[in-house]
Design goal:
The complex is a heterodimer of chains A (427) and B (629). Chain A has three helices and 29 strands. By secondary structure, chain A is mainly beta. Chain A has one domain: YVTN repeat-like/Quinoprotein amine dehydrogenase (Methylamine Dehydrogenase, Chain H), CATH 2.130.10. In chain A, strands 4-3-2-1-22-23-24-25 form an eight-stranded mixed sheet, with no helix packed on it. In chain A, strands 17, 18, 19, 20 and 21 form a five-stranded antiparallel sheet that branches. Chain A has a four-stranded antiparallel sheet with strand order 5-6-7-8, with no helix packed on it. In chain A, a hairpin with a 5-residue loop joins strand 19 and strand 20. Chain B folds into two domains: 427 residues, no CATH class; 182 residues, Glutaredoxin (3-Layer(aba) Sandwich). Chain B is 59% helix and 7% strand. Chain B has 24 helices and ten strands. Chain B has a six-stranded mixed sheet with strand order 1-10-9-4-5-6. Chain B has a two-stranded antiparallel sheet with strand order 2-3. In chain B, a hairpin with a 4-residue loop joins strand 9 and strand 10. In chain B, helix 5 packs antiparallel against helix 16 and helix 6 packs antiparallel against helix 7. The radius of gyration of chain B is 31 Å and the shape is flat. The two termini of chain B are 33 Å apart. The chains are: A mainly beta (427), B alpha+beta (629). At the A-B interface, helix 1, strand 3 and strand 8 of A face helix 7, helix 21, helix 22 and helix 24 of B.
């Protein structure tokens, strides 16, 4: 009797376990969800400013910056000769992931903008304007743009190159349709070339279109080597200089731009916890001019270039101010062969600093900037040793952008622009 | 509008109404079972009276029913599993208290916020701070509950009421032990899946806030009730229980004293210690003002004297633990009194009675813990004398012993107890069976999506025609889809939130149709006036792995053509500035093979996997309805 009862109990227990397994397996059946895991809204890293013949552009994050889904990257434009900034963010797509822009060299006025993936969107819509952002022509990349500031570049003929995510960065080219793209190279493939090995290429981090073709910047592991690779007739060659002053630092190209035969780059040099920034300029066919490194504290917020005159004669100065001026340059004249470079950094305590160098051979100037400053743009005129009157800082607080102008007395608060952000629209 | 998804409110009227309806239906089933068992009891009573021997009859049916007479005595002894004498006091105390607690827990499950509140307001917070494997375990229950909120919530009501009834109505014997075992098993399941192992793998575990989870004490109580009754004779069990409780209190004292766990400081705001945070949270739950006042005052007191309060708690727990562990009668009694005082104070001032706020599932850990301690003390100080384990005497053995006939042991008392136990079992089954059936269904109930979007409009009118271009560049019109059931929706190809989820719900619905998928076509029309190129559509299809589906069409066209279709189907589309995605209504339609619109419903997928699964189930349900006609 006991044995039979025990057996029955065992059978009941097994039956219950079996039922539990059935229930358990049922719950593991596929439930509908997005085709891939929802990534956090990945910011494009740093904001960017650039200049065209039509005016100055700034791509910067706004909204609730602590919340990825309520951070909206906005594109602002200031027409040359005016002081008014207008909101020109391409419509029809959420910009929580970031906005990257590519200005076409020369005075075509064409600006191409790519939207970084965010949440469930994993490819990048792109848009092009020829009228300062009033009207946009839409296109699309089949994949997501790399999360870097210069993930796109364009040429006057309409060619656009873009740096997509994956495989160490994938370089693709469009003939101008913005819908058909062909792969040129991948970061992984370039890392295996002699040029890639020369800098210890980890991933592609910027792209530009020079007169000879595309050139890419990279995040490299070999100390002291700036990862720049140029496409010369189908083969990629190392093009970056060695930086003696940062021989022990690993280099990452943050920005890369070519305007009027002058290619300029902003490079981050890291040694342990120490971070410096360098500016590089090169006129086509000539050697690179490398600025002295400027030590920065906190996070990089944005980096930008001033305009270049068609003859590459007069770079734009940026920033100014009250705090110390650091660094050393070669002492050469600022007039000449490249645009001004402006880098904005912010510490966790909210201290914002602007580091500006007017052009090749000039000194860096470091000044304090208003709290919340996301971008600093030069006045578009001649450089003034980094303390140019009329330099503009754009500070952000929620939906508001405040325009600050630099004058002899410091920063002067200017007009405020309210951006109609739809909070919660991307949650 | 995409991107404006919000979680369902706990008091969603559709879900609450369905919950109440399910409870009513199940109550009718329970009452029906009760009637059947009552009839059975009466039949048994009548049979007993007709066949009772003269000696039994001399006591009369009333006497037999009350257990008077030799037959009844034999039967009572048989039903009790061979144990004579009254139920030991400690066991009775434990059984009644635990039975009542289960009843209370079952009644708490009746709260209307339970169907939607259990995963988000109970289970997830319980698992917060636990390692990922705990979340993985807990997610099994969350998924089942979220997919079938009404069945799940109703099931808990009946299962817990059933366990409570079984424990209360079965005082002796196998039924009673089985009820205890059932309670222990269910409590263990609750501890794992509902309390995330009582948070013991998380941070900030504290006796004050309920560690190691109320269900642990229910489970231990159930195990004690499942022991043979002979175990309650003598002092051994009492000694073991009080010693275990003593060790538990000492362990909790050590945990409470451990530095760096946030127990030693009061503070406020972001710098508040564990206790202040917990008490503030409890004070904020909806409850009578009097209780909120008490607990608020204690929160302020603790914020100012956090260190002192923790020191008191540590010392008090250590003293109570040592007293219970000592095994000496007077020390144990004093320790038990201390445990009761400390426990009740904590229950009121820290745990805030445990069940306020609309989704309280039990009175937290203090009451079951004190019940356990009290039973242990009673078993120690008021235990009946130990008797040798009597030989088991089964009903069959009694019936075949030669001196009694089979019917003789079926006295009304025996049948009554069996009927009561069966009734309790039936109550458990009323909850468990539908839930078990639901849990084998991986598709969420359509009611979840209906709660989000409103009910389906059953219509029967010609569907507006359209001629657009599909992802391959081919022209597609509604007329060209004649003969097939069409599930139609509108998607923004560069949407970052809802549209990919809706597309996946459609993909799931396609898979769910099985062989009938060939008789259906899933159609999406672009809902973006800016990004509406074929390249956009193609990129979206690739992103969502829709390119391989033979019956998937993503249609686009000129802005003029799209606008005409949007207007015809009542779709609102607007361009918003400042980096905001297109705002458009989330709508879906099912069109039959003759081009007639048969169902219209919102397609907002919600913020949970259950919402999306539910949408796919609804689409399937409506498509099958059309295909079947």
């Amino acid at each position: 009797m006991r044995g039979r009862r025990a057996g029955a109990r065992r059978r009941a227990l097994l039956a219950a376990l079996g039922a539990a397994c059935v229930a358990g397996s049922a719950t593991t059946a596929v439930a509908p969800g997005p085709a891939g895991a929802a990534p956090d809204a990945a910011a494009s890293g740093i904001g960017a400013t650039w200049a065209t013949a039509q005016g100055a552009w700034a791509a910067l994050p706004m909204g609730h910056l602590a919340s990825a889904n309520n951070t909206f990257w906005e594109l602002l434009f200031r027409r040359t000769g005016t002081t008014r900034w207008t909101l020109v963010t391409p419509p029809g797509v959420a910009t929580n992931g970031g906005v990257v822009g590519a200005a076409t060299p020369a005075a075509t006025g064409v600006v191409t903008v790519g939207i970084q993936p965010a949440k469930y969107l994993r490819y990048s819509p792109v848009a092009r304007t020829t009228d300062g952002g009033k009207r946009w022509l839409s296109g699309t990349l089949p994949s997501g743009l790399a999360p870097v500031a210069d993930a796109m570049a364009s040429a006057p003929a309409g060619t656009v190159v873009a740096l997509e995510r994956g495989r160490g960065g994938t370089l693709v080219r469009s003939d101008g349709s913005l819908t058909r793209w062909t792969t040129i190279a991948t970061g992984r493939a370039l890392a295996a070339t002699a040029a890639g090995r020369a800098c210890g290429l980890r991933a592609l981090s910027a792209v530009t279109l020079g007169s000879a073709g595309p050139e890419v910047g990279a995040d490299c592991t070999r100390p002291g080597v700036v990862g720049l690779l140029a496409d010369q007739g189908g083969s990629w060659v190392a093009d970056g200089p060695r930086v003696g002053q940062e021989a022990g630092a690993t280099m990452r190209v943050l920005r890369l731009s070519t305007v009027s035969s002058v290619t300029a780059a902003v490079v981050e040099a890291r040694t342990g916890r120490r971070t410096s920034v360098l500016a590089l300029w090169r006129r086509a066919g000539q050697a690179w001019t490398v600025s002295a490194p400027v030590r920065v504290e906190g996070d990089l917020v944005s980096a930008g270039f001033g305009p270049v005159a068609p003859d590459a004669a007069a770079p734009t100065a940026a920033t100014t101010s009250t705090t110390s001026a650091t660094s050393a340059g070669s002492g050469a004249s600022a007039a000449s062969t490249g645009p001004a470079v402006v880098v904005v950094t912010a510490t966790r305590s909210g201290r914002v600093a602007v580091h500006a160098v007017p052009g090749p051979g000039a000194r860096w100037t470091t000044v304090a900037a208003p709290k919340g400053t996301e971008a600093v743009v030069g006045p578009g005129g001649p450089a003034d040793a980094g303390v140019g009157a009329g330099t503009t800082a754009l500070s952000v607080s929620g939906s508001w952008v405040t325009v600050w102008s630099r004058s002899a007395g410091g920063w002067r608060r200017g007009p405020r622009l309210e951006v109609p952000i739809e909070y919660g629209s991307s949650t | 509008m995409p991107g404006m998804s919000h979680p369902l409110q706990l008091d969603n009227p559709l879900i609450v109404a369905a919950f109440h309806r399910a409870l009513l239906h199940q109550l009718l089933v329970v009452l029906g079972i009760g009637v059947v068992l009552a009839v059975a009891w009466n039949v048994a009573f009548a049979l007993y009276v007709r066949h009772a021997s003269p000696s039994d009859a001399s006591t009369g049916p009333v006497g037999a029913a009350a257990g008077i007479g030799p037959g009844a005595a034999r039967a009572a002894r048989a039903a009790a599993g061979g144990v004579a004498g009254p139920e030991p006091l400690a066991r009775r105390l434990l059984r009644l208290a635990v039975g009542l607690l289960w009843l209370l827990d079952g009644l708490l499950q009746l709260q209307s916020g339970m169907p939607l509140g259990m995963p988000s307001a109970v289970v997830k917070p319980a698992a917060a701070g636990s390692p990922s494997w705990v979340h993985a375990v807990v997610n099994v229950a969350i998924t089942i509950w979220s997919d079938h909120p009404v069945e799940a919530a109703a099931s808990l009501v009946w299962i817990q009421l059933g366990i409570g009834l079984a424990i209360l109505l079965s005082p002796r014997g196998r039924w009673s032990r089985a009820a205890g075992a059932a309670g222990a098993a269910w409590a263990a399941a609750v501890w794992v899946f509902g309390e995330a192992f009582g948070g013991i793998f998380g941070h900030g575990l504290s006796w004050l806030t309920g560690a190691p989870g109320a269900a642990v004490f229910y489970a231990v109580a159930g195990i004690l009730l499942a022991l043979p009754e002979s175990a309650w004779h003598g002092r051994r069990l009492g000694r073991a229980v009080t010693a275990a409780m003593g060790a538990f209190y000492l362990g909790m004292a050590l945990l409470q004293a451990w530095p760096g766990r946030g127990s030693w400081h009061g503070g406020s705001g972001a710098h508040a210690g564990n206790l202040v945070s917990m008490v503030h949270a409890m004070a904020g739950t909806p409850q009578p003002r009097l209780f909120a006042g008490w607990i608020g005052a204690f929160a302020s007191f603790d914020a100012a004297h956090g260190w002192g309060i923790n020191l008191f708690v540590v010392v008090a727990l250590a003293v109570v633990g040592a007293a219970l562990l000592s095994g000496r009668r007077r020390a144990v009694l004093a320790g038990a009194a201390g445990a009761v005082a400390l426990g009740l104070a904590t229950w009121v001032l820290v745990q805030d009675f445990g069940f306020f706020g609309g989704v309280g599932t039990d009175p937290n850990s203090m009451l079951p813990q004190l019940v356990l301690a009290a039973a242990g003390v009673a078993a120690l100080v008021r235990a009946p004398a130990a008797v040798p384990e009597p030989a088991f005497v089964s009903v069959r053995e009694v019936a075949t012993a030669g001196t009694a006939r089979r019917w003789e042991v079926l006295t009304p008392a025996v049948v009554g107890r069996a009927a009561a136990a069966l009734a309790a079992l039936a109550v458990i089954g009323v909850g468990a069976v539908p839930m078990a059936a639901a849990s084998t269904n991986p598709n969420a109930d359509p009611i979840v999506t209906e709660a989000l979007n409103g009910s389906v409009d059953q219509v029967n009118s010609p569907a507006p025609g359209f001629t657009l271009t599909d992802q391959a560049g081919k022209t597609v019109s509604l007329a060209s889809l004649r003969g097939k059931a069409v599930a139609l929706t509108f998607l923004d190809p560069v949407c970052t939130t809802d549209c990919p989820l809706i597309a996946q719900a459609f993909r799931q619905a396609d898979a769910g149709l099985g062989s009938e998928a060939s008789r259906a076509v899933f159609v999406a029309i672009v809902a973006n006036p800016v990004f509406h190129s074929i390249a956009n559509v193609d990129a979206f299809d690739r992103q969502e792995h829709l390119t391989g589906l033979p019956n998937w069409l993503y249609l686009t066209g000129s802005l003029e053509a799209l606008t005409k279709v949007w207007n015809a189907y009542g779709l609102q589309v607007s361009i918003l500035p400042a980096g905001t995605m297109i705002a458009h209504s989330d709508l879906a339609y099912v069109i039959d093979g003759r081009g007639r619109m048969r169902a219209a419903f919102g397609s907002l997928p919600g913020t949970t996997a259950a919402g999306r699964s539910s949408l796919s189930t609804l689409v399937d349900q409506e498509l099958r309805r059309v295909i079947g006609q």
